[in-house]
Design brief:
It is built from 25 helices and 33 strands. By secondary structure, the chain is of the alpha+beta class.
Length: 890
């Protein structure tokens, strides 16, 4: 039974039992700052478990997951993976153990239904494992689960009772925390030998019964609506069903491992580590390809760092352990093997569509790593050779990471191979110092409401109702009732004039900052008070109007007139509609791989991030700008409609990658060419945009570009400013505006000619000065030594003079020239070719530059430096003579 069929059977089995099937969430979670990656099937259902959403009572999914906590075990054990798929069924206050346990047994054995008295009514949806090879574990105090397993006919001898560490989620929650939802687990093992948790035992399925809320005092308070959260690794299930010794012999890995084995190898293959390397490489490739296909790009921080580390680890496994293609990128040749292994999966289409983009990104990153691998490995070998103890200092590991781009994990891999360890605390300390240094140089400011918003988030559960009705699509004014007043530390009954406050209404026309769009401003007017709204944000599911009471006072239950600033809303709508036009134009010019990676929309100004390995050429930038403005002039209709998410996807609506959307979504359509899921506010037609102007385009991360643009009046003002500058330049050139480029070319030609004449004159003067300096030179062991202070010189002029001096010498010589100009020191040293083995100009400059509060260095025959203390030049030149004398006398 292939893995594709196992996916289908699992989902169909639970669909037949009333579960809503949910697509796999992105590996890169959106709106969840607690995790870097989606690491479990329950991640996308957090809001349901927390009671924030109630539109589902039960669900089932096959979730792609990424975990790196056990990375060192990948390839060494039969079933550890970085990327894996998690089959799961979930109940949000609906069914509980009495249904979850029998259904799990029924699906695996295909012999009994919930009552345990007759054959399964849907055997074609079951797996049919032999019941006698399945073992069960329960939490030692969970008598309900134990009783249910016995009722199903599982002998008590095949039921193990474990403690908090093994069969409670989170582990040890009853005694050690953390506070919050928790509960016992029950696990199902496939074990031919009956040694549960033994070497041949496979933990197939984990059923988590979330039934308690751990209190700060450590007590377990029963939840009013207990939940079910189960997880079964598809790789492990496939191994059990297909009868393979490890996951790597299943159809999920065979195409990848086979392709790895076909790669040409050298003679340095480490035979004792071949199996490990092939497995780990196959595992990492799945994670790498899926992450790249989802739009993530390698970088030096956060998620991008994990991806970069996986790519570099995979390359090194092939390069060092398997001796594959030294000096060449080979991972890119294995992308199609990953695609083959995913045939029949929900990810097949996206992998096929994104294949070229994945291959380009992977080849670029792998090639970049090849260039640094040799240097980093060589330096690491030097470090290990110099150590008396077999511990690599954390500071050295950090330098490898910071200077050579060598991930810590690779340093640890190499160290382990050589019998060394790495001082991880020392590495972390060095990294922290660098991060603090970076933060101290940042100019980012705060917001008066930032800390307030965090405090509201912590206590907002005190405020009913949880959701405010947003009516801002239809109107900019609405009657509302004040439901809450946050005074900065608590929910207050009233707030007086002059105070800032977070105001919650029962209904509001104010748009709360979300989806990249800034929040609305305006006013709230009551009978006894008026407040100016300076920003609107969502705090969990509560819409908070950040305001200052301008006059009178506001009280809870006051009726107010909520008025949004109409002019500002229009300007923001211009930017948001222009953002959709920009997205369409970029995809038209660059292709479908130019996918939105984020945006920020404010009044007549926007920022748009998109995936691209290359920046926009000038012609492409012009084409994008022209396309947007062409649609603006045509005044295409903008239409918004609510529809089911599935219907929106079938209609071809684009969604922001990784963003979470509800069952019902809002689709914004422009003409017949742009259709996106979007909750923002928009114009009735594109003509209201007025003017669109790209103000800048830059790289913000590897593979991610950013466009900053102006719209409406701001764009028109920028264009007028540019026209004024053009006319001013024409006026100064004495030409017409249409002739500015020709005038500039003529002026640049004149400047180049003048520069050539200047250098020629400088060279002639240098030759004259060189003869004087040579005549004044000292003889040291048959070598002419010349040291001089030159007035008003810079490094360029000193270098020209030094070259003229060495060219005028009849035999070997050394020249050291320095100049102090406006407090800055320029220093140059040059030697004739015959002295290269006896003197090193770079080392000498490096030695004397600190005397002038500077630094420098260079080649054996030429070096330069600088400093800040011109008064120290005589002493530095004297020290240079001493060092030259010592070197020549040796």
């Amino acid at each position: 039974m292939r893995s594709a069929e196992l996916r289908t059977r699992f989902l169909s089995f639970f669909q037949a039992r009333g579960h809503t099937l949910k697509d796999s969430d992105s590996l890169v979670p959106s709106g969840d700052p607690t995790v870097l990656f989606t690491s479990a099937g329950m991640n996308q259902f957090k809001d349901y478990f927390l009671g924030k959403r109630t539109d589902l009572s039960r669900a089932a999914s096959c979730q792609k997951c990424l975990r790196t906590g056990d990375l060192e075990q990948v390839g060494k054990t039969p079933s550890h993976h970085s990327f894996f798929e998690m089959l799961g069924n979930f109940s949000f206050g609906d069914y509980f153990k009495a249904e979850a346990i029998p259904w799990a047994w029924e699906f695996l054995t295909g012999t009994e239904n919930c009552s345990g008295t007759k054959k399964s009514e849907t055997p074609a949806l079951c797996v049919g494992l032999p019941a006698e090879k399945l073992w069960v574990s329960v939490y030692e105090e969970d008598g309900d689960a134990l009783s249910l397993w016995k009722t199903l006919g599982v002998p008590e001898g095949r039921i193990r009772r474990f403690g908090q560490k093994d069969n409670f989620w989170p582990a040890n929650a009853p005694t050690e925390g953390p506070n919050g939802p928790c509960g016992p687990c029950s696990e199902i093992y496939f074990d031919p030998e009956g040694k549960v948790q033994g070497p041949r035992s496979v933990e197939v399925w984990n059923l988590v019964f979330t039934q308690f809320d751990r209190q700060p005092d450590g007590s377990l308070k029963p939840l009013p609506k207990p939940n079910i959260d189960t997880g079964m690794g598809l790789e492990r299930l496939a191994s059990v069903v297909q009868g393979t010794p490890t996951d790597y012999e299943t159809d999920l890995f065979v195409p990848i491992v086979s392709s790895i084995r076909r790669l040409p190898r050298g003679k340095k293959v480490k035979s004792d580590r071949v199996d490990f390397a092939e497995r780990a490489l196959a595992d990492h490739l799945r994670a790498i390809v899926l992450l790249l296909a989802e739009g993530l790009v390698p970088s030096n921080e956060s998620r991008g760092y994990v991806l970069r580390m996986l790519i570099r680890r995979a390359h090194r496994l092939g390069r060092v352990t398997l001796d594959v293609a030294a000096g060449k990128a080979f991972l890119v040749s294995l992308v199609e093997a990953v695609e083959d292994a995913m045939r029949g999966s929900p990810y097949e289409r996206v992998l096929t569509t994104k294949r070229q983009a994945v291959q380009r990104a992977l080849e670029q990153e792998e090639t970049q790593f090849i260039q640094t691998l040799e240097a980093g490995t060589s330096r690491l070998e030097e470090i290990m050779a110099s150590l008396k103890q077999r511990v690599i200092p954390g500071e050295e590991a950090f330098k490898l990471y910071d200077t050579y781009g060598f991930p810590l994990e690779l340093t640890m891999d190499v160290a382990q191979e050589r019998g060394f360890t790495v001082d991880r605390p020392g590495f972390d300390a060095a990294l922290k110092v660098q991060q603090e240094r970076s933060r101290s140089g940042s100019q980012f400011g705060g917001d008066i409401f930032v800390s307030e918003t965090l405090r509201i988030r912590e206590t907002v559960k005190e405020l009913p109702p949880k959701e405010a009705q947003f009516v801002g699509y239809e109107t900019l004014e609405a009657e509302a009732v004040v439901k809450g007043l946050w005074d900065g530390s608590r929910w207050a009954p009233e707030v007086n004039e002059g105070h800032t406050v977070g105001i919650v209404l029962d209904r509001s026309p104010f748009y709360g900052e979300s989806g990249g769009q800034i929040g609305d401003t305006g006013a709230l007017e009551g009978h006894k008070g008026v407040a100016d709204v300076v920003q609107t944000t969502w705090v969990d599911d509560v819409l908070v109007h950040h305001a200052k009471v301008r006059q009178g006072r506001l009280k809870v239950q006051d009726r107010v007139k909520a008025r949004v600033s109409a002019e500002r809303r229009l300007k923001i709508a211009r930017s948001h509609t222009a953002t959709h036009l920009l997205h369409w134009a970029l995809r038209k010019v660059l292709g479908p791989d130019a996918v939105q990676a984020g945006s920020y929309v404010e009044a007549e100004r926007l920022r748009f991030d998109f995936s691209s390995l290359q920046g926009l050429h000038e012609e492409q930038r012009h084409d994008v700008e022209a396309l947007v403005n062409s649609r603006v002039r045509l005044a295409d209709e903008v239409h918004a409609a609510q529809m089911r998410q599935e219907e929106a996807k079938r209609a071809g609506a684009l969604a922001l990658f990784g963003e979470k959307y509800g069952g019902v979504v809002r689709v914004v359509t422009i003409g017949d060419y742009s259709k996106e899921l979007c909750g923002g506010t928009h114009l009735p037609h594109t003509g209201f945009v007025g003017t669109f102007l790209i103000a800048g385009e830059s790289s913000i991360a590897a593979g991610t570009r950013r466009i900053e643009a102006l719209v409406g009046e701001a764009a028109s003002e920028r264009q007028q400013q540019q026209v004024r500058l053009l006319h001013e330049a024409a006026k100064r050139l004495g030409r017409g505006a249409d002739d500015v480029v020709a005038g500039l070319e003529e002026l640049l030609g004149q400047l180049k000619h003048a520069e050539r004449e200047r250098k020629a004159l400088q060279l002639e003067l240098a030759k004259v000065e060189a003869n004087r300096l040579v005549a004044e030179g000292k003889q040291i062991n048959g070598v002419t030594f010349i040291a001089a202070t030159i007035k008003h010189g810079d490094r360029e002029s000193l270098a020209v003079l030094a070259d003229a001096v060495t060219g005028s010498l009849p035999r070997d010589g050394v020249v050291v020239l320095a100049s102090g100009n406006q407090g800055q020191v320029a220093l140059v040293m040059a030697t004739t070719a015959g002295l290269a083995k006896r003197l090193h100009a770079g080392e000498l400059v490096k030695a004397i530059a600190p005397m002038m509060q500077g630094s420098g260095g260079g080649r054996p025959e030429f070096a330069q430096g600088g400093g800040k203390d011109a008064a120290a030049i005589p002493a530095a030149l004297k020290r240079a003579e001493e060092l030259v004398r010592e070197a020549l006398e040796r």
